[in-house]
Amino acid sequence: MEQLLSLAFDNLSSYDGPKIRKGLRQVEGLLANICLSRGQSNKDRRASSIGKDPDMDEHEPLPPKSLDEVTNDPAFYEFFKLQEGFEWNVAMRLVNTLDRLLATGADGSNDLLILSALDLVQGAMLLHPPSKALFSRELYMNLLLDLLEPDFCPAIQSATVVTLVTALIGTPRNTRTFESLDGLLTITSLFRNRCTSREVKLKLIEFLYFYLMPETPSIPSARAAQDPQLPGLLQRSPSKLAKAFSFGMSKGADNGRPRSTGEGETRTQEEKQALLGRHLNSVEELVEDLRQNTPFGGVVV
Fold first, then answer.
1. Helical pair 90-103 and 17-35, crossing angle rounded to 10 deg
2. Which of 97, 128, 203, 248 has the fewest beta carbons closer than 10 A?
3. Cα separation, 281 vs 98, whole angstroms
4. Residue pair 116/143 in contact by the 8 Å Cβ criterion
5. Mean pLDDT lowest for which of 57-71, 93-107, 117-131, 173-187?
6. What residue spans of 55-107 are helical by DSSP H?
């Protein structure tokens, strides 16, 4: 896996568009191999093809793995272990690639590369939640806020909002960085801009609902209380991913990365309502709607 990542990182570090595209596809292939179920054997494929409509596409998309399948996959363990170090961290390489793409200016081919990189950043953070710690740094949070400027196309703005939500879920420290950089002003300014598309405005409303929800770090597993080296940021089913977080961590070892991206000061809904109220007049209506309708099922972590 190190060899695959090395080839992808070499391409991602280039300033040449085709090489960057190749690197993004290599990373996508690696993540897909972890997330998607393996193809059927030749025997099973022949059996399933009997009675099948010949006009149907032979290349049907592979179904995603269940959470149990992912956590029991040796490839996921190897990937997760490599992400704990600086050298092989995918999210950091992708964010640095985004930074270079922004510096080269906007054009159609660049937009496609930016969209692809944003999708992969989301995937990297979901597969390795501690990588969200990158966005507690102003440098990387500013990069996402720059992508919300009116100069960028609606597709990039929408993808950036989704990436921002992924970076903020269960990470109060990242949310505080977002607030300190006037992220709320960026969001509300884009929402009020007459040139902002309807699709982007819907994404921004969803973001505001998400932002106003009660703020809670991700739920730690029971084992986390016993093992101080176990990162506190876990997914919806922490018990299933606990062993992945402990994989490759020796007791007493500190690799320099924050133990938990979920650490940090939390704010109440009232405090966040007051902050948002500085930039938006209808915050009370959003909060009332949030309490009555409980979007996202009432939970975000």
1. 150
2. 248
3. 34
4. no
5. 57-71
6. 67-71, 74-83, 90-103
Two tokens, residue 21: 């595209």
Residues 182-210 as b/e (b if ≥16 CB within 10 A, e otherwise) read ebbebbbebbeeeebeeebbebbeebbbb
Record the pTM: 0.75
Q: How far is CA 299 from CA 31, 54, 59, 214, in A?
A: 27, 44, 36, 8
- Residue 242 corresponds to which tokens in the numbers above? 């606990």
Contact 1, 78 (CB under 8 A): yes
DSSP 264: S
Mean pLDDT on 194-208: 93
Q: Is residue 117 a contact partner of residue 94, using CB atoms and an 8 Å limit? A: yes
C-alpha torsion 72→77→83→85, nearest 10: 150
Secondary element (H or E) of residue 26: helix 17-35
111-146: pLDDT as tens digits = 999 999 999 999 999 989 999 999 999 999 999 999
Candidates 164, 130, 174, 140; CA nearest to 265 is 174
Please say whether the beta carbons of 166 and 203 come within 8 A. Answer: no
**Amino acid identity, position 49:** S
DSSP 8-state class, residue 64: B
As a whole number of angstroms, the distance between CA 147 and CA 154 comes to 10
